[in-house]
Design goal:
Pseudouridine synthase; eleven-stranded mixed beta sheet; 18% helix
Length: 218
């Protein structure tokens, strides 16, 4: 039996709990998986403090993406953040390892995205606008490490936008990646600037060790 990893808490107050999600873990339950989720782990944590405590999801990440996930400790806070997410989440940054050497050191990608009946997102003229900015942080012979900032919050936005410029995220078979040198999806939600109690607070997650090894970072 594998040892359960301790929940990594990045920020906590009476209304919010912000945690670091590992890769290959669902944020919330599905029909197939009820208990092995981040939501279940966070719920167990708050109930240890007081059995009647509840937890509410504010944002979520894909199963294979790691990084920052925001929970609310009451429904009022959840609704306040979800209904005003664009105003509360001022800056959201990701780290992405992509296939190939990205030649432009930085760029803004504007795409119109649409989801098909198989739940795959495509660039489409009749889709919704997604704006994604990137900056190249590191490169080696075969891969590039990007800092990615999303200005809109569309499903699979980063994954589709980078695949569309022929630099799919490593390990992302769904969006045309053919390589997986780190045995996981190369996408990590690394930083969020969030309005908390009327003030902007920057929450950061450490760069995953697989990312560091790939580019020989300290």
């Amino acid at each position: 039996m594998t040892k359960k990893k301790k929940l990594t808490i990045l920020y906590e107050d009476k209304n919010l709990l912000i945690v670091d999600k590992p890769p290959k873990l669902l944020t919330i339950a599905t029909a197939k998986e009820k208990e092995h989720t981040l939501y279940h782990e966070v719920s167990e944590y708050v109930k240890k403090q007081y059995p009647k405590n509840k937890i509410f999801i504010v944002n979520r990440l894909d199963k294979d993406t790691s990084g920052i996930v925001v929970f609310a400790k009451n429904e009022k806070t959840k609704l306040e953040y979800q209904n005003n997410w664009q105003d509360y989440a001022l800056n959201r940054e990701y780290l992405a390892i992509v296939e190939g050497k990205v030649l432009k050191s930085q760029d803004t990608l504007k795409n119109y995205l649409k989801e098909d009946k198989n739940f795959k997102v495509h660039v489409s003229l009749d889709g919704e606008l997604a704006i994604t900015k990137y900056e190249v942080l590191e490169k080696n012979k075969s891969y590039s490490l990007l800092k990615v900032k999303i200005l809109t919050g569309k499903k699979n936005q980063i994954r589709v936008s980078l695949s569309n410029i022929n630099h799919p995220i490593v390990g992302d078979k769904k969006y045309d990646s053919e390589k997986n040198p780190i045995n996981r999806l190369g996408l990590h939600a690394s930083s969020i600037e969030l309005m908390i109690n009327g003030k902007p607070v920057i929450i950061q997650s450490k760069i995953p060790k697989e990312f560091k090894l790939m580019f020989k970072l300290d």
